[in-house]
Design goal:
143 residues, mainly alpha
Amino acid sequence: MTPEAYQRFVSARAKKSPIVRDTALAFVIGGGICVLGQLIQNGWIDAGLSRQDAGTATSCSLVALSALLTGLNLYNRLARYGGAGTLVPITGFANAVVSPAIDFKSEGFVTGMAARMFQVAGPVIVFGTLASVLYGVVLMLLG
């Protein structure tokens, strides 16, 4: 069977993705996470924090909440419905760090959990840091 014939065979039998439904769910779930973040920030501001400190506290709160929900296997259930909507940067990043840690905890604290924790998030950290350094250099050169 030629590669073209195989592609036609697979395409004819592949289940069609409900893209409109998936996009709508991603929008609603991602938007809901963002609304939750805004509510948390408003709560920190009402508690007496400055806007900048409330932003920091909101980030920490969202990371902690995402890690907790991942540990309880609730974030993954939400991701089944919300798809890409759960990849809102800060909560998706926390989920990407905690999930491998949970998956590999049976291999030990150091060689399992600690070593594999940044398996997914490590490249994001490396390239994010590199991009920020390059951005800073460009800004410095442009004055």
